[in-house]
Automatic annotation (TrEMBL):
<feature type="compositionally biased region" description="Low complexity">
    <location>
        <begin position="302"/>
        <end position="315"/>
    </location>
</feature>
<dbReference type="InterPro" id="IPR025846">
    <property type="entry name" value="TBL_N"/>
</dbReference>
<feature type="region of interest" description="Disordered">
    <location>
        <begin position="289"/>
        <end position="315"/>
    </location>
</feature>
<keyword id="KW-0472">Membrane</keyword>
<feature type="domain" description="Trichome birefringence-like C-terminal">
    <location>
        <begin position="113"/>
        <end position="376"/>
    </location>
</feature>
<feature type="signal peptide">
    <location>
        <begin position="1"/>
        <end position="29"/>
    </location>
</feature>
<dbReference type="GO" id="GO:0005794">
    <property type="term" value="C:Golgi apparatus"/>
</dbReference>
<dbReference type="InterPro" id="IPR026057">
    <property type="entry name" value="TBL_C"/>
</dbReference>
<keyword id="KW-1133">Transmembrane helix</keyword>
<keyword id="KW-0732">Signal</keyword>
<comment type="similarity">
    <text>Belongs to the PC-esterase family. TBL subfamily.</text>
</comment>
<dbReference type="InterPro" id="IPR029962">
    <property type="entry name" value="TBL"/>
</dbReference>
<dbReference type="Pfam" id="PF14416">
    <property type="entry name" value="PMR5N"/>
</dbReference>
<protein>
    <recommendedName>
        <fullName>Trichome birefringence-like N-terminal domain-containing protein</fullName>
    </recommendedName>
</protein>
<keyword id="KW-0735">Signal-anchor</keyword>
<dbReference type="Pfam" id="PF13839">
    <property type="entry name" value="PC-Esterase"/>
</dbReference>
<dbReference type="GO" id="GO:0016413">
    <property type="term" value="F:O-acetyltransferase activity"/>
</dbReference>
Length: 380
């Protein structure tokens, strides 16, 4: 009996050893995975884990890939009750007869954007400061956000100070301040013996005002294309060289790279969220959307689908190239394609100055979607 028992043990012992070793290997593999997960969640102050979550969310939902759909619940506010809109954006005030352009919402392909809630924004950012830095398209976005918040708390006490280059709007009860710093090129324009000089290597002119913000939203490009009387400079300083002109995309790249170095060296992105607004398109050339004889004038509805016939402008590629080279995290509000689809959303002849404006945007209108996407990026 003892001999049979020993024989049985010898028969099953190899199988038992393999089972034990297999279980141990699985346990070790499981522990290794947990260690990796734990390391990612604690190293770098937890930011590695956050980046991973953002990447997974981005792969499941691109907020900027989608289409425009009719939405009867829009707009977010009535322009006649918002005290912060400049006349150049107040299309209804200056006689725009159609209102369908107000009734479109942006629908990403694979998720839903949270609807903007001004009261929630004020509570979440109590005591915080948000600054838009850039040209008149930053003004467009700043006034849009001001109106969206005001519509939620119409009786809130505010302090509104509009100056050049720095304007401020404070919702007093909440201590939330929206700043606008006007600087069309972001880099400096200085007065020298030869005249106005666009210095591609300097941002000292406004940089001190940009520090210690909770949210920074930068924007530039619109003025880089201007020539003749509308050009904002006489010469360009590129390092030690002083030139009358150069390729505008090259100049934009060098200027934006100077801004990128400033952000990398001066902004603590654990305390400040940094965004780049993206390239806002124009609609002067109908050939871009296969209507060669037309512009934004008389347009009453968006383009269908999710792509623009002529593709993204080269300036958008410059922005991507610069952002990808940065050490600090900067979020691109990739508004270009969704804005290209809105040939109907410009002031055109209803901006109050007698011209045709296919560069800026009516309020209410498209910039409200930009701010809704900013809100989604901050809260999702």
């Amino acid at each position: 009996m003892g001999f049979k028992l020993i024989s049985l043990l010898l028969l099953f012992l190899p199988l038992l050893i393999v089972t034990i070793l297999s279980g141990a290997e699985q346990a070790f593999a499981s522990d290794k995975t947990l260690l990796v997960t734990g390391r990612n969640s604690t190293a770098d102050g937890g930011r590695s884990s956050l980046r991973g979550k953002k990447q997974r969310r981005a792969s499941g939902c691109n907020l900027f890939q989608g289409r425009w759909v009719f939405d009867a619940s829009y707009p977010f506010y009535d322009s006649s009750t918002c005290p912060f809109i400049d006349g150049e954006f107040d299309c209804l005030k200056f006689g725009r007869p159609d209102k369908q352009f107000l009734k479109y919402s942006w629908q990403p392909e694979s998720c839903t954007i949270p609807r903007f809630n001004g009261g929630e924004f004020l509570r979440k950012y109590r005591g915080k400061r948000v600054m838009f830095v850039g040209d008149s398209l930053s003004l467009n976005m700043w006034e849009s956000l001001a109106c969206m918040i005001h519509a939620s708390v119409p009786n809130a006490k505010t302090t509104f100070l509009k100056r050049t280059p720095l304007s401020t709007l404070t919702f007093q009860e909440y201590g939330v301040t929206l700043h606008l710093y006007r600087t069309p090129y972001i880099v400096d324009i200085s007065k020298e013996r030869v005249g106005r000089v666009l210095n591609l290597g300097a941002v000292e002119g406004g940089a001190d005002a940009w520090k210690n913000m909770d949210v920074l939203v930068f924007n530039s490009w619109h003025w880089w294309t201007h020539k003749g009387q509308s050009q904002g400079w006489d010469y360009i300083r590129d390092g030690s060289s002083l030139v009358r002109d150069m390729n505008r995309l090259d100049a934009f790249y060098k200027g934006l790279s100077t801004w990128a170095r400033w952000v990398d060296q001066n902004v603590d992105t654990t305390k400040t969220r940094v965004f780049f607004q993206g390239i806002s398109p124009t609609h002067y050339e109908g050939r871009e959307w296969n209507e060669p004889r037309k512009s934004c004038s008389g347009q009453m509805q968006p383009l269908g689908g999710s792509s623009y016939p002529s593709g993204q402008p080269p300036s958008a590629g410059v922005v991507s190239k610069v952002l990808n080279s940065m050490k600090k995290p900067v979020t691109l509000l990739d508004i270009t394609t969704l804005s290209q689809l809105r040939k109907d959303a410009h002031p055109s002849s209803y901006g109050g100055d007698g011209g045709t404006d296919c560069s800026h945007w009516c309020l209410p209108g498209l910039p409200d979607t930009w701010n809704q996407l900013l809100y989604a990026a901050l809260t999702m």
